[in-house]
Amino acid sequence: MSPIYLASASPRRAELLTQLGVPFTRLATEVVEQQKPNESPLDYVTRLSQDKALAGVKIAPDNRPVLGADTIVVIGDLVLEKPLSPRHAFEILTQLSGRSHQVITAVTLADSLRITTRSVQTTVTFCHLSPERISQYIETQEPMDKAGAYGIQGLGGNFVREIQGSYSAVVGLPLVETFELLTDFQS
Ligand SMILES: Cc1cn([C@H]2C[C@H](O)[C@@H](COP(=O)(O)OP(=O)(O)OP(=O)(O)O)O2)c(=O)[nH]c1=O
């Protein structure tokens, strides 16, 4: 696999790309994450992954492909991103308790001429969480930098009764779809 740029500060995305065997250099980009009125969750996560990749293309020193990705948690029509505070994390986890939600991850590859995006939707079902259990989890700090205020790869995995779809997409980068995207883009 040829080397690429990764426009992401997420340690999970770097680990997953390493697991795929893709050599990469990280680029530091800043993208404002704000859903527009009437923008669907899928359109929103797609746009963010594209904005991240295109912000990387702008600062990349050469024309290697740039990968950008975004992950959101969706319950009903409501998009849950990273919690703004421990109190907000408590509200989010209370909403997720005892029911199913969707996790959508979009991945974009772009260079100065082309842009391609794949999105993956996974359904995750949580067991019932008591307020005490939620508070204890928040004390670990694990929820604070994660969409939906949990990490399936960490202690948040203890809450997952069922997952239908891609585990790696929930963690932040769908391995199969990213490999296919890279293969198609570089062929
Ligand atoms: C649901 C879930 C999300 N997450 C993480 C993946 C993402 O890093 C984060 C969602 O935030 P994002 O805004 O997608 O990504 P980021 O800000 O961490 O990184 P960057 O924009 O620089 O690429 O939540 C987990 O690690 N485990 C989970 O189970």
- Low-confidence stretches are none
Structural class: alpha/beta
Sheet-strand content, in percent, reads 25-35%
- CATH fold-level assignment: Maf protein
Distance between the termini: 10 Å
Under the CATH scheme, which architecture would be assigned?
Alpha-Beta Complex
Mean pLDDT: 97
Quick one: CATH class?
Alpha Beta
Oligomer: single chain
Pfam family, one: Maf
Subcellular location: Cytoplasm
Enzyme class: hydrolase
Keywords: Cytoplasm, Hydrolase, Nucleotide metabolism
SSE order and pairing:
Layout: E1 4-6, H1 11-20, E2 24-26, H2 41-59, E3 66-75, E4 78-80, H3 86-96, E5 100-110, E6 115-126, H4 131-139, E7 160-164, H5 167-171, H6 175-186
Parallel strand pairs: 1-2, 1-3
Antiparallel strand pairs: 3-4, 3-5, 5-6, 6-7
The protein binds thymidine-5'-triphosphate.
Residues 8-10, 12-13, 52, 69-71, 73, 82, 103, 146-148, 150-153, 156, 170-172 line the site of thymidine-5'-triphosphate.
Characteristic terms for this protein:
187 residues, alpha/beta, seven-stranded mixed beta sheet, 7 strands
Descriptive report:
- The protein has a single domain, classed as Maf protein (Alpha-Beta Complex).
- Strands 1, 2, 3, 4, 5, 6 and 7 form a seven-stranded mixed sheet that branches.
- It is α/β, with parallel strands linked by helices and 187 residues long.
- The chain is built from six helices and seven strands.
- The chain starts with a strand and ends with a helix.
- Strand 3 and strand 4 (78-80) form a beta hairpin.
- The mean pLDDT is 97.
- Helix 3 packs across helix 4 (131-139).
- Bound molecules: thymidine-5'-triphosphate.
- Thymidine-5'-triphosphate binds at residues 8-10, 12-13, 52, 69-71, 73, 82, 103, 146-148, 150-153, 156, 170-172.
